[in-house]
Design brief:
It is an enzyme of class 2 (transferase). This protein is an alpha+beta fold. It folds into three domains: 230 residues, Vaccinia Virus protein VP39 (Rossmann fold, 3-Layer(aba) Sandwich); 106 residues, Double Stranded RNA Binding Domain; 34 residues, no CATH class. Helices cover 24% and strands 28% of the residues. Helix 9 crosses helix 10. The longest helix is centred in the C-terminal third of the chain and has 14 residues. The N and C termini lie far apart (55 Å).
């Protein structure tokens, strides 16, 4: 029978970062925070129809989607964008380990979702030390019910997470459960001496935890992990099926390259660097369905104005590139990749981030070696950039 104890066993076997969180995992019953119908990585599960399967998913180390398309009715065949979930417990623990909480710390949980993380924090730190904020009033109401049902009473409020929750500031820690393209300076102001942990990145590469220490009005930190969280709802670019982003295919400009597209597409360190200069474009690999092992790497602008297709054919030494729109997305990605190679192909763990009142920049090895900067004029290259 699946239970919190079974979840703890799974997490221990996987080597999850449990230090200090074992009691939260076993005491706070995850089932109290989930609806009767959930979407697992293996499909949709109904508690009424398959109670044992539902409970196995609940007490597995699985991310469970609890809302799609912001909760609005979704027609059959319509694109389903996950917009709220109960995060994978081992991923929650990885992020909480980065947070480095201690007794007495006051924490702001940004992106309350189901309320499970707020309850974990309340169990460890006391309900009075935890505030959770979410932009969706329906989620806020449900999260508040969930934490009460579990026996906790953190402050659960509705608001734009990018603004933090100034009414409860200052905090010792801020933790976000959605991906941000930039660290809001409001968070820095509300943690005058403390730590911020958030999934970080733009559309091209969003698979980093940023852990920043704050003092004297600035935040400095490093990147780690490989999280996959939903984007900030207030700064979320449109998504859909591939066909929704393709147009004017007959007008595409075709070129060739000797660079294998998959050499870029499957290198996380390269993608991190490229993502600093293409924060407003995303990509997807599509494998041929005929057993040929051919792959097309699609690059798609968030505003849907431009796209590129890079075709990988096994055994070939030249690859066909098609591009359309005011931007040449393959050319941009290739230029950034070559710059990364020119600097010795540095791994992501050599990069850091600094947030000030006027600027936010990513650097290599030390704060003075700026790769990319985001100021009043938006993203742009730094002294090491393309």
């Amino acid at each position: 029978m699946s239970s919190p104890e079974r979840l703890l066993e799974i997490l221990r076997n996987k080597g999850a970062a449990l230090q200090g969180w074992e009691e939260s995992v076993t005491t706070v019953r995850r089932e109290l925070f989930l609806p009767d119908t959930i979407e697992t990585p293996h499909g949709t599960v109904s508690r009424d129809a398959s109670p044992d399967v539902w409970l196995t998913a609940v007490y597995g180390d699985l991310p469970l989607t609890t809302q799609v398309n912001d909760g609005r009715p979704t027609e059959d065949g319509e694109y389903r964008l996950p917009t709220s979930s109960s995060s994978m417990p081992s991923m929650m623990l990885e992020m909480l380990d980065l947070l480095q909480v201690a007794d007495g710390h006051r924490v702001l949980d940004v992106g309350a979702g189901t309320g499970l993380q707020a309850a974990w924090l309340a169990h460890r730190l006391g309900s009075g030390n935890v505030t959770a904020v979410d932009v969706d009033p329906v989620l806020v109401e449900q999260a508040a019910k969930n934490v009460r049902a579990a026996g906790y009473s953190p402050h659960v409020v509705c608001g734009d997470g990018a603004a933090g929750w100034p009414h409860g500031a200052p905090y010792d820690r801020i933790i976000a459960s959605y991906t941000v393209p930039e660290i809001p300076y409001a968070w820095v102001e509300q943690v005058p001496r403390g730590r911020i942990v958030a999934p970080w990145g733009g559309s091209f590469f969003s698979h980093s935890f940023a852990a920043l220490d704050v003092s004297d009005g600035e935040a400095h930190g490093r990147f780690s992990g490989y999280p996959a969280f939903m984007r900030s709802r207030t700064a979320r670019p449109p998504r859909g099926f591939l066909r929704d982003f393709l147009h004017h295919q007959e007008e595409a400009v075709e070129t060739r390259t000797t660079v294998d597209p998959l050499e870029i597409a499957r290198d996380a360190d390269a993608q991190f660097w490229i993502g600093l200069f293409l924060p407003d474009a995303w990509h997807v690999e599509i494998e041929a369905e005929d057993g040929s092992d051919e792959v097309t790497w699609w690059l798609l602008a968030d505003d849907r104005s431009s796209w590129a297709a890079a075709d990988h054919v096994p055994g070939q030494h030249e690859y066909v590139i098609a591009q359309y729109g005011p931007r040449r997305l393959w050319d941009e990605a290739l230029h950034a990749w070559r710059t990364w190679r020119r600097h010795g192909s540095p791994p992501r763990d050599r990069a850091g981030i600094t947030v000030t009142p006027d600027d936010q920049h990513v650097w290599l090895d030390e704060p003075g070696r700026v790769i990319a900067s985001t100021g009043a004029d938006g993203p742009g290259p730094g002294r090491l950039g393309p």
